[in-house]
Write a structure and sequence with these properties.
The chain is mainly beta. 11% of the residues lie in helices and 44% in strands.
Length: 591
């Protein structure tokens, strides 16, 4: 073999080694990235004491450190009363590939020991800081107080801001995804927590807590929950003047006992316990008392302002719960009714259901807050639309009922842009103006007035306006009638010189006539003698020189003297008068 061959072999060998190193580092990098995706390695089954910060709070960064907390509580060494534990990273207790197939018989997994029990409860404050615990596996139907935490108790004991995901939690009684049993002590609370794992048990089984003895708020469950009696999406049993509020369930909840209680939020709500401002869209089934929100409410328990998908449960016999369609959930209606605790990004690419504002930052809360715009019309009729801040809301005018003589519209310019508040927009009607034709009359003139303004021929008057008419008869004439007709020939009623403008154009004129003998207020014509009254003035014409005497019916002498031809007697008060001309006596009325 020559030198050239040796160099070739060495070069090939070097290339092979480089290739193997590249493969090794590639696999290593993938494993590191997989671990970094959850921020932590898989639990090795051991325990390790965590460090503390400057305030003495325990800082949990590994599964081993979380297991150490469980060991301390369950052994009775430390219940952490008055102490704080903070989760600094996501925790992986088992690899979770295929976790949906885990059951009671799955092997090869680390079994988690819940933190605390009925006899040795956790009494501290645990803040998950929005981290998750992944891969919990518990399977023992003989055990009670089962969950990430078994039991919490003591003034101020709390579990906040932690999620349980891709987990299988199965026990006997008091089983919850987060906590099995919350003792009834002031300040005990579960807040900002969620579960998407599978939770199973016999009695008092809930996606978040098995039994709530104080407060569960701002939590949600997406996982499947299965039990026999007192089974709920959030809490199996809500007991004793305590509260579940601002919570929702999307997971399937199943109960099996004929006399059991199965609910989308709470299985059994008893002893003055309250459920408020919650919703459920998960499928709820069971053989006993089944409800979309609560399976059964007894002994003073109550439910307020809770909503559920109308197809989620065949029964919903509890007061304070309201069915809503899928469209109502998608439109923002339910988020608006739930108000303070919930929001929803509406429109294309938005949230299909309401979300808890508790989990959002300030900017996200503002963008997902839902506002309602009410369009009111007709007799107590309305249409409500929903939108986020800045959304443009429109509505067709055609929904407003027609009204003769009016145009219709909205009292606010559309589209309306939501500006951090709701709005009521009302229908409004505007009278249509119609043309008026004024025809001249014979024997006098007249004036047409509306809204204090004189009307000319060809002007327009709004429908429904009051129109007044004033006649000015010529001397020797009087008004006989007003003639007001629509352009299509219909008569318009005039009462006391007033009429209402109809829905259409009108023609107006006056009919004047000579004052007749039969009218005591007008002309008396006997052998050339004429007598009539007009605008408070008495007119008397004598064909020859005669003595004329005017006497009020009260007996007061108004005038007496000789006259020939026409004379006016002005300044007469309204009333009846006797007028004597020569030997003839007449009665006239001055108006």
């Amino acid at each position: 073999m020559n030198a050239m061959d040796n160099r070739t072999d060495v070069r090939k060998l070097g290339q092979g080694i480089v290739g193997m190193l590249r493969l090794f580092w590639g696999i290593t990098l993938l494993l590191l990235l997989a671990g970094q995706a959850w921020g932590q390695a898989v639990w090795d089954g051991t325990t390790s004491e965590p460090g503390k910060d400057g305030n003495g709070s325990y800082l949990i960064t590994t599964a081993e450190e979380l297991a150490w907390v469980a060991e301390q509580v369950n052994s009775g060494k430390d219940n952490f009363s008055g102490k704080t534990i903070r989760l600094e990273s996501d925790i992986v207790l088992n690899m979770t590939e295929g976790w949906v197939n885990w059951d009671e018989n799955t092997t090869g997994l680390n079994t988690w020991m819940p933190i605390g029990s009925f006899d040795l409860p956790f009494k501290g404050f645990f803040d998950g800081q929005r981290h998750v615990v992944k891969g919990i596996y518990i399977s023992d139907d003989s055990k009670k107080e089962i969950g990430l935490f078994g039991a919490i108790s003591g003034d101020g004991a709390a579990v906040w801001n932690v999620g349980v995901v891709e987990s299988f939690i199965s026990g006997g009684e008091r089983v919850g995804g987060i906590v099995g049993y919350v003792f009834p002590f002031t300040g005990n609370s579960i807040s900002g927590c969620y579960n998407s794992g599978k939770v199973m048990g016999n009695n008092e089984v809930g996606g978040i807590v098995g039994v709530n003895g104080y407060v569960v708020g701002n939590c949600y469950n997406e996982g499947e929950v299965i039990g026999n009696h007192k089974v709920g999406g959030i809490a199996g049993f809500n007991n004793g003047n305590k509260s579940v509020f601002n919570c929702y369930n999307t997971g399937k909840v199943t109960g099996g006992e004929p006399l059991g209680a199965v609910g989308g939020i709470v299985g059994e709500n008893a002893n003055d316990a309250v459920i408020s401002n919650c919703y459920n869209i998960g499928q709820i089934t069971g053989d006993g008392n089944v409800g979309a929100i609560a399976g059964i409410v007894v002994s003073g328990g109550s439910v307020h302002d809770c909503y559920y998908l109308d197809s989620s449960c065949g029964e919903a016999p509890v007061a304070g719960t309201f069915p809503k369609s899928l469209d109502a959930f998608k439109s923002g209606e339910v988020a608006d009714k739930l108000y303070m605790g919930f929001g929803q990004a509406l429109g294309e690419g938005g949230d299909p259901y309401p979300v808890l504002l508790f989990f959002l930052n300030t900017e996200e809360k503002a963008s997902k807050k839902v506002y309602c715009v009410i369009f009111s019309y007709g007799e107590n009729q309305s249409i409500v639309k929903y939108g986020n801040n800045g959304a443009k809301i429109d509505m067709e005018v055609s929904v407003i009922p027609d009204k003769e003589g009016y145009t219709k519209g909205w009292d606010t310019q559309l589209p309306y842009t939501i500006d951090m508040t709701g709005m009521e927009i009302k229908a409004e009607y505007t009278p249509i103006p119609y043309k008026i034709e004024i025809l001249p009359a014979t024997g006098g003139t007249f004036e047409v007035v509306t809204n204090g303004q004189a009307v000319a021929d060809g002007d327009e008057i709004a429908f429904g306006s009051e129109v007044s008419l004033t006649a000015e008869p010529m001397v020797g004439n009087k008004l006989k009638a007003w003639i007001v007709t629509t352009f299509d020939g219909k008569e318009v009623t005039v009462t006391d010189d007033l009429f209402t403008m109809p829905a259409g154009g009108v023609t107006v004129t006056a009919e004047f006539v000579k004052i007749s003998d039969e009218d005591p207020t007008g002309i008396e014509s006997v052998e050339g003698l004429e007598m009539y009254a007009h605008n408070g003035v008495l007119f008397v014409r004598t064909p020859s020189r005669e003595c004329v005497t005017v006497i009020a019916l009260t007996g007061r002498l108004v005038w007496s003297g000789m006259q020939i031809g026409m004379r006016e007697y002005a300044g007469l008060a309204s009333g009846a008068y006797l007028v004597r001309v020569g030997e003839r006596v007449f009665k006239v009325w001055i108006r």
